[in-house]
């Protein structure tokens, strides 16, 4: 994969909302590890993949079939498919509504992706 | 095929109120909701919810959502969470997919309470990662507890935009600019949003949140071929309903934001009325629910009228199919006069979102460039499935 493809970390620092005046403190939970383009990323058990990615500052999920333009989470509720990625070898998984799993392998998807990408 | 007296689709405030009312009147009720928890948009809202009964009034949305879920559970309603009602078929049969399994539900009455979708409008750079809808932003902030960005531009005006701007500030982000609409707006960056330009003034920003009102999303009812009517306050066609909120199709009701309701109180009052009517409750109860609803009607949220699109700037219009604004304008210049025409000629609206994110812009262009009156711009023909579902699930259906 060329150097300009894949996970780009641009929004850095702690992006978790740890305290909140209405919601209270972020409840403790089990931490799992997912692998995004082979890079280990911490995630909170049960959260959607897209949330773990945003917390790690990763916002590009895929590039589009026609002109390779990048896309990232847009609607957050599984309607727009801008957050599609290849997850455990399966292309076009909606990461905003798919929960993380320990050891999950996630690949930035190019175009329509392929069944091989994540399992290579 | 599973049977029930009343099937409610959508577990937001309107759907929960409908299920509670129908169950209270003695009906066997199944409530189908695609989210992991009940509460609809209240699940990701922390602002106070007004106009409700004393024990819920003024509570943050998240607490109202939790309270409604508890009440529904206590009322003996069968709840199917994480379940997508993807198709409406003859004799009030609803197709449901839950993960990899599928089944059908038949009921004398189906109450469609499928809520809204955030209305979005195109502007140059709006497909860049970092641009997102108001509900995506609030879901990440309040449910998943993640800041989608640190320097945020909030687009839109009115109470919803205030709520979103406040949500970011409270969570620790900086709202660097607020703009009323997409006119003069541009997002730039190499692979994601890095700067935002508003009327020539540039801001360093990583996130743009679109808070441009909510679009009724009654797709399942449209599949049932209910008659629609243009609601000028909403800026869209909504199902035509009688005094009990029943549509032109026997046994099909539409309530809440799916039909254009604005406030939570109004949505819940609608749900209650339809729930009672669908369950065949005593006439006095139904009359009381009708009366309660009258006082809650909201004329308009103020930011939902059909918009004007920045037609002279090159940009993508249909996100799913990567159709440009220029392509849609050309289709209209060549004679397209309906949403379906534009869809067939350009593929705008043919993607996975089924047009929900490009429809406002295409409708505005039809009005402004083809001269089609807004009330004549009818929704695209709705066909199953209403959501992306696994093909394997369909093989499990009987018949």
Q: What average pLDDT do the residues of chain A reach?
A: 88
* Main beta-sheet strand count, sense and barrel state of chain B: 7 strands, mixed
CATH topology of the domain at 30-110 in chain A: Ubiquitin-like (UB roll)
Q: Report, as a whole number of angstroms, the end-to-end distance of chain A.
A: 12 Å
Number of helices of chain B: 11
* Weakly predicted, low-confidence segments of chain B: none
In total, the number of strands of chain B is 20
Q: What is the quaternary state of this protein?
A: heterodimer
The number of E-state strands of chain A comes to: 8
| Shape estimate of chain B | globular
Give the helix proportion of chain A (percent range).
under 10%
Strand content of chain B: 15-25%
Task: List unreliable stretches of 5+ residues of chain A.
Answer: 1-10
As laid out across the biggest beta sheet of chain A, the strand order is 2-1-7-5-6
Tell me the CATH architecture of the domain at 30-110 in chain A: Roll
Q: Structural class of the secondary elements of chain A?
A: mainly beta
Biggest chain pair contact, residues each?
A: A-B, 43 and 44 residues
Strand percent estimate of chain A: 25-35%
Can you give a write-up of this model?
The complex is a heterodimer of chains A (120) and B (399). Chain A contains 1 helix and 8 strands; from the N terminus they run ββαββββββ. Residues 1-10 of chain A have low confidence and may be disordered. Chain A has a 5-stranded mixed beta sheet, covered by helices on one side. Chain A has a 3-stranded mixed beta sheet with strand order 4-3-8, with no helix packed on it. Chain A has 120 residues and is mainly beta. The radius of gyration of chain A is 14 Å and the shape is globular. Chain A has a domain at 30-110: Roll (Ubiquitin-like (UB roll)), CATH 3.10.20. In chain A, a hairpin with a 2-residue loop joins strand 1 and strand 2 (39-44). By secondary structure, chain B is of the alpha/beta class. Helix content of chain B is 29%, strand content 23%. In chain B, the strands form 6 sheets. In chain B, strands 1, 2, 3, 4, 5, 6 and 18 form a 7-stranded mixed beta sheet that branches. In chain B, strand 1, helix 1 (13-24) and strand 2 (29-32) form a beta-alpha-beta unit. Chain B is globular. Classes of the chains: A mainly beta (120), B alpha/beta (399). Chain A binds chain B through residues 4, 8, 10-11, 13, 15-18, 20-23, 26, 47-48, 50-51, 54-55, 59-61, 64-67, 69-82, 94, 96, and chain B through 34, 46, 60, 62, 117-118, 127-133, 135-137, 139-142, 144-150, 170-172, 191-192, 194, 206, 319-320, 322, 351-353, 356-357, 387-388.
């Amino acid at each position: 994969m060329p150097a300009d493809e894949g996970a780009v970390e641009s929004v850095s620092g702690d992006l978790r909302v740890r305290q909140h005046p209405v919601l209270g403190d972020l409840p403790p939970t089990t931490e799992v590890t997912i692998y995004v383009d082979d890079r280990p990323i911490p995630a909170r058990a049960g959260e959607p993949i897209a949330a773990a990615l945003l917390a790690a500052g990763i916002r590009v999920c895929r590039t589009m079939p026609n002109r390779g333009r990048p896309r990232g989470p847009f609607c957050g509720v599984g309607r727009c498919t801008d957050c599609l990625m290849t997850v455990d070898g399966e292309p076009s998984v909606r990461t905003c509504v798919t929960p993380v799993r320990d050891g999950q392998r996630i690949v930035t998807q190019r175009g329509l992706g392929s069944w091989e990408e994540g399992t290579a | 095929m599973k049977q029930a007296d009343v099937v409610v689709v959508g577990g937001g405030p309107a759907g929960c109120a409908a299920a509670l009312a129908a169950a209270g009147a003695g009906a066997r009720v199944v409530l189908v909701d695609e989210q992991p928890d009940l509460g609809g948009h209240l699940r990701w809202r922390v602002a106070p919810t007004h106009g409700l009964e004393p024990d819920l009034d003024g509570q943050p949305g998240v607490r109202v959502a939790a309270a409604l879920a508890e009440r529904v559970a206590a009322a003996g309603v069968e709840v199917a969470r994480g379940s997508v009602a993807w198709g409406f078929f003859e004799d009030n049969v609803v197709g449901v997919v839950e993960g990899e399994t599928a089944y059908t539900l038949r009921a004398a009455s189906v109450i469609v309470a499928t809520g809204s979708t955030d209305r979005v409008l195109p502007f140059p750079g709006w497909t860049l990662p970092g641009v997102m809808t108001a509900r995506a932003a609030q879901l990440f902030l309040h449910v998943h507890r993640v800041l989608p960005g640190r320097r945020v531009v909030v687009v839109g005006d009115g109470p919803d935009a205030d709520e979103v701007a406040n949500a970011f500030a409270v969570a620790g982000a900086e709202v660097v600019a607020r703009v009323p609409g997409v006119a003069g707006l541009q997002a730039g960056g190499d692979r994601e949003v890095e700067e935002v330009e508003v009327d020539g003034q540039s801001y360093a920003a990583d996130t743009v949140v679109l808070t441009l009102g909510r679009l009724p999303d009654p797709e399942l009812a449209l599949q049932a071929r209910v008659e629609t009517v243009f609601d000028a306050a909403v800026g869209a066609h909504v199902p035509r309903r009688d005094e009990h909120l029943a549509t032109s199709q026997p046994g099909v009701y539409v309530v809440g934001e799916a039909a254009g309701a604005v406030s939570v109180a109004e949505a819940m009052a609608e749900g209650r009325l339809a729930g009672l009517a669908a369950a065949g409750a005593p006439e006095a109860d139904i009359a009381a629910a009708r009366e309660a609803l009258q006082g809650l009607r909201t004329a308009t949220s103020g930011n939902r009228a059909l918009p004007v699109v920045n037609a002279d700037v090159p940009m993508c219009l249909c996100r799913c199919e990567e159709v440009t604004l220029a392509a849609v304008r050309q289709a209209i210049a060549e004679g397209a006069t309906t949403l379906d025409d534009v869809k067939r000629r350009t593929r705008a609206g043919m993607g996975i979102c089924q047009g929900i994110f490009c429809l406002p812009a295409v409708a505005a262009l039809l009005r402004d460039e083809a001269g089609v009156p807004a009330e004549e711009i009818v929704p695209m023909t709705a066909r199953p499935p209403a959501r992306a579902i696994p093909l394997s699930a369909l093989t499990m259906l009987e018949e």
